Amino acid sequence: MNDQSTKNETIDISKVEKILEDYKNTRGAVIPVLQKAQAAYGFLPEPVIDHIAQSLNMSADEIIGVATFYAQFHLKPRGHHIVKVCCGTACHVKNAKALSSKVREKLKINVNETTEDKLFTFEEVSCLGACGIAPVVMIDEEVHGEVSPDKLNDVLDNYKKSGV
Amino acid sequence: MKTIHLVIEDKPIIAPEGINIFQASLDNGIYIPGLCYHPKLSQFGGCRLCMVEVTERRTGHRFACAHPVSEGMIVKVNTPKVIRYRKSVMEYLLVHHELSCPICDKAGECSLQDITHELNQSPSRFKAVRMDYPMVRDNPVLELNRNRCILCGRCVSTCKEIEGIAAIDFQNRGIKTVIGTAFDRPLECSFCGGCVAVCPTGAWQDRTLGFKGRSWEFSKVPTICPYCSVGCTIILNTKMESVRRVTSDDYLGINEGNLCIKGRFGHEFIHSPERIKTPLIRKNGELYPTSWDEAIEYVAKRFQQIKNEHGGTAIGGIGSEKCTNEDNYLFQKFCRSVLGTDNIDNMANIKSPALNGLIYESVIHGMTSASLKEIEHANTLFFIGADMTEAHPVAGSMARKAIRLNNANLIIANVRGVQFNSIARNDIRLKYALGSQIILINALIKVIIDEKLVDLEKVETSTNNFDKLRSLIDKFDREEASKITGVTQDAIRNAALLLTKPGNCYIICGKDIEENPLAEDAIRALMNLCALLNPAYRGDAGSGKVSLFFSRSHNNSQGVNDVGVVPGFLPGYVNINDASNKEKIEKSWGVKFPDTILKKDAENVIDLALNSKLKALYIMGENLVVNYPNGKKIKEACKKIDFIVVQDTFLTETAQLADVVLPAATFAEKEGTFTNMGMTVQRINKAVKPVGDAKPDWQIICSLAQKMGHSCSYVSPKEILTEIETISPMYAGINYDRLKRKEFHWASSVSNKNKSTRYTFSMVKPRSSEIRKNKDFPFVLLTGASLNHQGTFSRHSKSLMSVAPECFVEINKKDAQVLQINNGDRVAIESDQNKLTLKAKVTSKLPERVVFVSEDYEWVPVNILRDRVHTSVKIYKETV
Ligand code: SF4
Ligand code: SF4
Ligand code: SF4
Ligand code: FES
Ligand code: FES
User: Which 8-state DSSP code applies to residue B234?
Assistant: First the structure.
């Protein structure tokens, strides 16, 4: 699970320590703590999870159980831009697969991976609720409708140019 | 409790209010298929298999495990519709399941397999997609094949609720959900094996079995665990005269199928190649195998010789905390009536000489009246000086049950920050300064009296000496107490408030208290506390109970004392100096004790040996050389004895010093009874033949007695127990055959007989035990129990050895920093007696200037360092 390990990077535990101060002796604090920790670190690194476990008097295994259940939590570092290719029914029919292939080929990463320069993370999601303009790709908060592989190529280039 | 009337499968049933249909059916022997519900776990409702037809006001379908019984309810379990539904659920469950029954150790006892078979499940309409997760085999005792998992959640709940560990949980979601650890790290847990026991499929497996037999080939023999004093029932699974694995039974004994690592995986010693298989006799300085005839003849001859020349009292006897009551009874009878010596003892009594008397007193006053299992019904739990997780793990699970189901309050007083995971809402930890236990207990008493937390007038009228206690306590200052103990006044007060709440209050007094030089005072103070906590004085008009439990180390540490392997006390704590008792026993044994037997020196057996008053020592099932608290002394003592006979299962350090070694059978190879730390007598059952020429201890003693010209014609432990019953009033009503079905609790029969005894408060001066400060040896060495090991048996159990191959010295973080000691460094611990080198474990559990080494790793003789309970040591990094 930790193939993109963060072990060699030092993680600054003080950030999560601060977050935990507010939740001392509160029951059911796991989810809010995880949310705040993720906001602070961008994802949930292993040492942070261990620290949370210790402070909340739970096992890391339980916490990871929660963290892996909710799609909102990420255990791997994520890129600056999140590319979400919709694979819902409508988009699937409109050949969303070709879009996924495009991302893979262009960014050289698989689903749920992050480019080496940490610019992009590639995710496949189910219906984004914009079936009218299928196939849909969402980059960060921006929705791109009726995308073709070529168009996607250009869109990604634009993001690359503007960088972080 | 309100009861509910309902009908399940045309059978009228009365069930307690609040339980679900599934449980009501189980209780009445009606079968509902279900894979996730388990009576000892909280309801989960994940497998969706237990659908039944329910008619309340209307008829509908409900999940039996999730639906409470109601008055007039009619339940049908097997309507065509229900069966159709059930089949389709199974069809879904089996889409991913690999159905590898022919190569699965679970086959034959697998609920999934059984239900598939029972439903006559036809081939699936779905194209099967088999999971292909790799086998998780990251520890020596358990393996997890996630392809066989149906995600019923039982293992997750067991680990969380019963063990309090939560080492595993559901990971991921949807189709990718699996059981596992965080980041797929290797399993790090207590290895209780609870997950294996509850898993309804072959996902979790016991690696000690490792295909050494199919489930249907095993004979299953229920017996009692040979390790700690909880006395769990274990099931020995045997095939061709060998024990292949241990399983558990949720409905037998006191432990609801819960075990710890030792009970479940520590069975390999039974067939260890290192067992002693023939008698050994020393010739020219070496031990050589010999025949039983020669060995017995030689021992009998030497004993007789010594008796003739020096008198029987020149022979000492050490009984066993691990052998049965019957073995031990016969042992003391042999020593007293054949050898003519009362110089006998056992390690439990040697380590804690005041304990027997105090326990008996406590029983008489009805303060030690509950059996261990009653802990489950506690409302308040107070562990003082007891490390439940390491020393009495399954009693810890009982406590967790009380916390989960009754919202029990928890108070843990200990010098170390012992680990005990719980979800108790009120969880108070009193980490008191080393030696200050009496001050702490008195401080609790003071709060109770000062704040009138119990009805003091009633206390006054129903006890003696309360006024004296009061004036003693009046002089005692709470602030001062807080300073000495290092526990805040608030914490002490809160603990006192919890203790005095209505309901069942159970106190467990641990080894730290019992083996302390001030044990007697501390226990008397605890008894004072218990007297105040009598439910009659606490709110709620007398409902509830208070009970004081005393920690014992081994499976039969209680029993060895009960049956009289104690100097000066005949079976049942009958004083040998009391003429009428003596006569009664003499008559029943058909002997006359020599007068010399009564001329008691105050010295214990080992001191006698040191003073050259012992010529021979007969040791049964005890590795004295390692377990005697003072290693130097015991070695010197052994050197002074001419003739040592050791009767044991392995060639222990003690057996290696013997002149004759007699091979004894293990618990699995004999019959008899053990008494647990809650005074419950339980029966053990023979599962396999003794290895080699080994014999049950009682038989060996019989042969010796016969050789020495005494009749000793017992054919089985049953007869011995019957004799014990007639001799000792404590055992009135015990019956060997009945023990097969039901355990016997001697404490309740004794305290019932003494109902009217009035308690007299003891005046216990609040003082600390002296910790000698020493500039050269600035640390204090503490010792204690270990979860993974306990003496000779665990040492010879392969799996336990691979889980815990190393004994560590624990040291406080700050001290470690100063001494530049890191985890895993080799560290020397040196006292003025000796030196030991161990790996360090840095921890925040210990106070500063205290180091801890477990005494249960038999191959690490901590006792060579010790000359008293709190030995001063120095510690330093060993440079290579
Ligand atoms: S062996 Fe016990 S502690 Fe370990 S995972 Fe299984 S249930 Fe949990
Ligand atoms: S491993 Fe066994 S007990 Fe655990 S969820 Fe899977 S099937 Fe249930
Ligand atoms: S060692 Fe104690 S707690 Fe563990 S299984 Fe045996 S009796 Fe039970
Ligand atoms: S299926 Fe892609 S937006 Fe709905
Ligand atoms: S037994 Fe009821 S849902 Fe599993």
Answer: E
CATH (residue range B280-346+565-578+592-713): 3.40.50.740
B429/chain A closest Cα distance in angstroms: 14
Contact B173 A1 (CB under 8 A): no
Nearest ligand for residue A132 CA: 4
- Who has greater pLDDT, B601 or B452? B452
B779-877, which class in CATH? mainly beta
CB pair distance less than 8 Å for A69 and B165: no
pTM of the model: 0.92
Tens-of-pLDDT digits for all 164 residues of chain A?
344 444 446 788 999 999 999 887 777 889 999 999 999 998 999 999 999 999 988 999 999 999 999 988 999 888 889 999 999 999 999 999 999 999 999 999 999 899 998 899 999 998 999 999 999 999 988 999 999 999 999 999 999 888 76
CB B740 within 8 A of CB B683: yes
Distance (Å) of CA B611 to CA B638, B834, B867: 11, 22, 17
**Mapping DSSP to helix (H, G, I), strand (E, B) and coil, where does residue B362 land?**
helix
> Taking the domains of chain A in order of start, what are their residue ranges?
14-69, 81-162
**ipTM, two decimals:** 0.79
- Residue nearest to ligand 2 atom 7, measured at CA: B149
Q: How far is the CA of B178 from the centre of ligand 1 (A)?
A: 16
B65 lines ligand 5 (CB under 6 A): yes
Q: What is the CATH number of domain A81-162?
A: 3.40.30.10
Nearest to B170 among A53, A57, A65 (CB): A65
Q: Are B562 and B675 in contact (CB under 8 A)?
A: yes
CA distance A110 to chain B (A): 18
**Domain at B3-78, CATH from 3.90.1150.10, 3.10.20.740, 3.40.50.300, 3.40.50.11030:** 3.10.20.740
Cβ contact B673:B681 at 8 Å: yes
B148 lines ligand 2 (CB under 6 A): no
